[in-house]
Description:
By secondary structure, the protein is α/β, with parallel strands linked by helices. The chain has two domains: about 5-125, Rossmann fold (3-Layer(aba) Sandwich), CATH 3.40.50; about 145-210, Winged helix-like DNA-binding domain superfamily/Winged helix DNA-binding domain (Arc Repressor Mutant, subunit A, Orthogonal Bundle), CATH 1.10.10. It contains ten helices and six strands. It has helices spanning about 10-25, 35-45, 60-70, 85-95, 110-120, 125-140, 155-165, 170-180, 180-195, 200-210; strands at about 5, 30-35, 50-55, 75-80, 100-105, 125. It has a six-stranded parallel beta sheet with strand order 2-1-3-4-5-6, sandwiched between helices. The longest helix has 15 residues, at about 180-195. It is elongated, with a radius of gyration of 19 Å. The model has no long low-confidence stretch (mean pLDDT about 85).
Amino acid sequence: MPRVLIADDHPVYRDGLRLMLTSTGEVEVVGTAADGGEAVALAAELAPDVVVMDLQMPVLDGIEATRRLTSGEPAAAVLALTMHDDDESVFAAMLAGARGYLVKGADQEEILRAIKAVAHGEVIFGPALAARITRYFALLVGAKPPTEEAFPQLTSRERDVLDLIAAGLSNPQIAERLFLSPKTVRNNVSAIFAKLQVADRAQAIVRARQAGFGR
């Protein structure tokens, strides 16, 4: 059972997250911190497996706190959980040593999966962020990502799901890859079919691959 420290300067969100995680019985919340400085001090005292870290906090921001935690002995696994999903924040957290990055609004199952993943040494990002990072590195190596102009009616998550549909993944595989519940994937697939005005998966795959998805 991963031992978790929560660092967030918003008491309502911090306490709500603590209660939610505790209620699952799948993680142990060993402490909470209201700023980055307190997070670093408590991590040294409590030695949690994972620190769930907000980025915008007083005294010491989450980026610097992450840098100190991941360079310490023993190094803590940091999961950024924040309102900010801009490229600057994402890559700053990565460079500071965060093993995961989720945007607030992620559901209970996504947060739990991410905590367990980083506790076991994996690197995990929310679906939209993972797709953005993939496209970023694809551009660095000269690969052609799916065109941004294709299917503007889709949300970023629906585009992520469509990309995996085009790659031939089943709904359970997509749920596992994107750390989503099967129900969420089914809902996204139904929305994609409706927005693309296709009757089935085969038609969706054809249209998606023509637009550069699934590569």
